[in-house]
Amino acid sequence: MIRPGATLGLLGGGQLGRMFTVAARTLGYRVTVLDPDPLSPAAEFATGHLNTPYTHPASLAEIAQTCAAVTTEFENAPAEALLALAERTLVRPSGNAVAVAQDRSREKAFIAGNGLPVGPYADLRGEADFDAALARVRLPAILKTARFGYDGKGQATIASRADLAKTFTDWKGVPCVLEERLALELEISVILARAADGEIEVFPVAENRHAHGILDVTIAPARIPAALAAEATDLASRLARALDYVGVLAVEMFVVGGRLLLNEIAPRPHNSGHYTIDACRTSQFEQQVRVLCGLPLGDPTLHTPAVMVNLLGDIWRDGEPRWEAVLRHAGAHLHLYGKREARPGRKMGHVTVCEPTLEAALEVALAIRRELGIAESG
Ligand code: ADP
Ligand code: MG
Question: Residue 331 contacts by C-beta under 8 Å, 6 or more apart in sequence?
Fold first, then answer.
């Protein structure tokens, strides 16, 4: 067990890292953040900030020397950096698990290869793959770059073969996956922690609404039949075991025709788990600290229904939003990430509304959205 007082290393210093750092510091740990951004939101709370690229040898050497354990908040922090660190210190999750999660082709092959459900898709490496892909995937489809996509970036709708050829060329032939565009009834996510001894604790299944490819609202617990929630929990747990995963893992799923399909995984806490900070007995970030340090896993039970609303840079259009609109609601918890520059689509913060009933939480969340000028996602 790594005891409080030790220093933990964190690759990536965005808002997820910020909330991890707060949880780690609360438990008495020191945190060194590695992030090239001098304005890293996590670094504000960290005891140290290595302000270099992720693969910088001197930074990795310093982390290996000073940190009792290392984790990540960002799948694009190179898996190689994690693998290199693993030779000298404890790394959770493993570089191998992160390498699967950061590449859509490997991720989908892994999911399907373990007998877990995934929608029709095909890998594209070059024009020679077009015929086979279009035979497997019905149009309209979605083309996604295999790497570096997030919040709907690196995705395009494909209506025809000509569309496919043009977009693939526009993207300079980088490896892609083509996915059938599914008629989604609902999107849900399962976040769990798996400890080194194989013990798994699963947070309540969350229901997610997206707007323009970006998470907009999370509702917990998801309004789905108990059997479907149990199946989602089981699928996520099977995936974690298949990956021999140690850490916090998020699994995004689609509900299509009443059945579950796995969409993608994130080797870290997830935006759809922010509600756990205010609504669960243990947050996803404290759970990340616990699993990293080999502490007993926390209780993920929901103690109040919750609705989380993302605050994107769009609502800074006319200057700083009027936070009174949030703060005067007793059940609303405001979280801001300390980012200096508000750009449209940029995640700046979130609000979690906790009320005795989900209906009441939804009503307050709706009122807050209206007052902040957030458009309805439908
Ligand atoms: P990322 O979250 O990394 O940007 P996703 O693959 O999760 O990428 O896509 C973002 C959102 O786009 C999803 O949450 C979903 O709303 C929508 N989407 C993605 N793939 C499909 C699909 N095959 N069919 C229908 N909608 C999709
Ligand atoms: Mg996603």
Answer: 353, 354, 355, 360, 361, 364
Return the residue matching tokens 């908040």: 73
Q: Tell me the ligand closest to 107's alpha carbon.
A: 1
Contact predicate 154/144, CB 8 Å: yes
Is the Cβ atom of 345 under 6 angstroms away from ligand 1?
no
Distance 328 CA to ligand 1 centre (A): 34
Residue 83 is predicted with a pLDDT of 94
Cα(213) to ligand 1 centroid in Å equals: 6
State the residue for tokens 């949030």: 326
Nearest alpha-carbon partner for 261 in 253, 251, 272, 250 = 253
61-97: pLDDT as tens digits: 999 999 999 999 998 888 889 999 999 999 999 999 9
> Considering every ligand atom, which ligand is closest to the CA of 119?
1
**Both tokens assigned to 330:** 């007793």
As a whole number of angstroms, the distance between CA 119 and CA 122 comes to: 10
pLDDT in tens, 104-121: 999 999 999 999 999 999
CA pair distance 364, 331, nearest whole angstrom: 8
Pocket probe for ligand 1: among 155, 256, 265, the residue whose CB has the most ligand atoms within 8 Å is 155
**pTM of the predicted model as reported, rounded to 2 decimal places:** 0.97
Two structure tokens written together for 249:
């893992």
What is the number of other CB atoms lying within 10 angstroms of the CB of residue 63? 26
Nearest CA to ligand 1 atom 13: 213
